[in-house]
From TrEMBL, chain A:
Stored InterPro entries: LexA-like (IPR039418), LexA/Signal_pep-like_sf (IPR036286), LexA_repressor (IPR050077), Peptidase_S24_LexA (IPR006197), Peptidase_S24_S26A/B/C (IPR015927)
Domain of life: Bacteria
Pfam family, one: Peptidase_S24
Gene3D superfamilies, sorted: Umud Fragment, subunit A
Family recorded in the similarity comment: Belongs to the peptidase S24 family.
Full protein name: Peptidase S24
Entry keyword annotation includes Ribosomal protein: no
GO biological process: DNA repair; regulation of DNA-templated transcription; SOS response
GO MF terms, alphabetically ordered: DNA binding; hydrolase activity
Domain Peptidase S24/S26A/S26B/S26C: 32-148
TrEMBL record, chain B:
Entry similarity comment: Belongs to the DNA polymerase type-Y family.
Record's protein name: UmuC domain-containing protein
InterPro entries (UniProt xref): DNA/RNA_pol_sf (IPR043502), DNA_pol_Y-fam_little_finger (IPR017961), DNA_polymerase-Y (IPR050116), DUF4113 (IPR025188), Rev_trsase/Diguanyl_cyclase (IPR043128), UmuC (IPR001126)
Keyword DNA repair set for record: yes
Sorted UniProt keywords: DNA damage, DNA repair, SOS mutagenesis, SOS response
Molecular function via GO: damaged DNA binding; DNA-directed DNA polymerase activity
SUPFAM superfamilies associated with the record: DNA/RNA polymerases
Alphabetical GO biological process terms: DNA repair; error-prone translesion synthesis; SOS response
Species assigned in the record: SAR324 cluster bacterium
GO CC, alphabetical: cytosol
Every UmuC domain range: 2-186
Amino acid sequence: MNNPNPPSLPLKSDGSISKIWFADDSQGIELPFYDTKVQAGFPSPAEDHLEQRLDLNTLVIENPSATFFVRVAGESMKDIGITDGDILVVDRSIESWENRIVVAVIDSEFTIKRFTTQNETVVLEAENPDYPAIKITPEMDFSVWGVVSWTLKKL
Amino acid sequence: MIALIDCNNFYASCEQVFQPQLAGKPLVVLSNNDGNVIARSSEAKKLGIGMGVLTGSVHGFVRSHELQIRSSNYALYGDMSSRVMETLEELLPNVERYSIDEAFADLSGLSRARMLELCQHVRHRVQRHTGLQVSIGVAQTKTLAKVANRLAKRRPELSGVCIGTETESFGRILEQMETGDVWGIGRKISRKLTGFGIHNAKQLRDADPVWIKKQFSVVLMRTVLELRGESCLKLEEPEESRKSLMCGRSFGKPLKELEDIRPALTHFVQNAVTRLWKYKQATSALTVYLSTNRFRKNIAQRSVSASVELSTTDNLILLNAAAQRALEQTFESGFEYHKVGVLLHDLVAVKNIPASLFETESGIKNSPELMWAVRKINAKFGRYTVASASVSGSSDWRARSKFRSPAFTTCWNELPLVQA
C-alpha cells in the first residue's frame, strides 16, 4: 500500500488509521439567509443583499475549496440510491471515513464504496448484494480520495 | 517572517489528482499547440526530461510508454489554484497570491515551534482539500523565503517545511546556489555577475550594494539587501523565466454590481499586459478570480473563477475582452465582492507565437495610444466587450491540444467517473 499520491494519508500499512488530524469546523460557510428573520412585507434596504433566492450551493457545499463533483458509473451502490449516472458531491475535507460513503482509489482506479474497518483491516462494502466487499490488503495501492456528502439524482 | 508556499510540480500534480493512473508516473505537460514541455512530474524530472522544445528523447519515451503526456488544461489549473489559495487564506494571515502556484504569507510574531506546527498544518490541509502537495519556506525576506522553499523541496528530511529564522544560517546554502537560482535574477544578469567574479549567491550577498546598484540596477541591489535579511517591500518580481503572471487585489470597498467590478478588472488586465509587454511575452489562456471577503462572517460568501482560452496573443483588447467574458461567467448578483484578479497562463516569448489564422492584431498593439484609448473606452465598456469577443477563442487552437484531459472541476459534462 504505497500510494505515491497522496502520501500523507493517516493510514498504517495494515490499513488501520494511525492518526486522525484535528478537523477544524471553525470555517463553515455562514448562511446569512437563516440569520435574519423572515420579513413580512418589504425588507429593510440595509438587508437587501440577504434577500437572495435559495442557492443549492449553500446547502450541498460546506467547504467550497475542498468540494468536487464526480459522476457514478455502475450499480454497486444502488441499495442506498446511488445509481449509474448520478452526480456525487465529494467533500475532501471530511477526515472521518468510518462508515461513510467514500471515493477511494484502488490500484489507480476511482471507486465508490462504504468505508469500514473490520479487525484493523479496511473493508470497502458495496451496497448491492451482487457485489462483494473489497478487503484492502497491503499489496493494494489504496487511498481515500474524498467523502461523498450528497447524491444528485435526475428523476 | 515571511512564508513562501509553493505547490510541488503544480500542473503535473493537478493532472494526477484526477487521473490516478498517472500518479507516480513520469508525466509532462505541454504548452498550447503541444509544442513545448512546460511542466514535469518529479518522475519525469528523474528521467532527465528538460523543459522547452520537445526533443527526440521525449518522443522516444512516449513511444516506449515510459512517459505520459498531457496538453495544458488551464481550466483545471486555474480552478485548482484558487482552491489552494482559498485554503491558504483560511489558515494564514495576509496571503499574497503571487503566481498560479505560489503565495506569500506573513508569519511575524510566531515562535519557531508555532510556525513549524502551522506550516505542517497548512501542508496537511492543502493536501487534504486539493490532493496537492505544497512546500513552505520561511525567512526574514521574500528572497530568502524562496531559498528556504527550495531547500524544503530538495531535502526530504525537512518534510516540506524549512524555517530559516537566523539569516546568517543561510551562508552555506547560498554558497551552493548559482546566482541565476536567486529569485529575480535572470540568465543575462547571472552571466554579467560571473564576469565580475561573482559565481554564487553568497558572493552576491556579500557584494557592496552601492557598487551593485552602480554596475547593475537598484533592483539587483534590493536583491542583495534581501539576501542579507533586509526586507525590501518594493521588490520586483522575476519576469524573465516566469510561466504565468497574476494581477489583482481587494477593492477599497465591497462592490455589488458587475459594472462596478469591470473597471477594476480592466485595470488589473492592463497592469498584467503591461508587464507582459515589458518582457515581450504573450499568453494563450487566462483565469479571472472573483471573491467576497471571507473574514466577514455575516455576509454571503462566494469565491469563483473562470478560465478562457484564446490563440496566443499579447493584445490588450483581446485579453481584456476575454477577461470581461470570464467575469460575466463568474459574476452573480447578490454578493458583496471584495476582490478580483486575473491570471495569465502559459507565457511564451513573442517571437515564439505560432502564426494564427485569426491574426487581426497587427499594427494596433503595444502602443501608448492604445492604452490611452482603452482607458477612454472603459467608460463605455459593455459595448466594447461585445465588439471584440468574437475574435478570441480560435478553434484552431483547440485542435492542437491533442492530449488534453477533461475539465474535471469546471464542466458538468467532464466530471471524473467513479466506478460503483
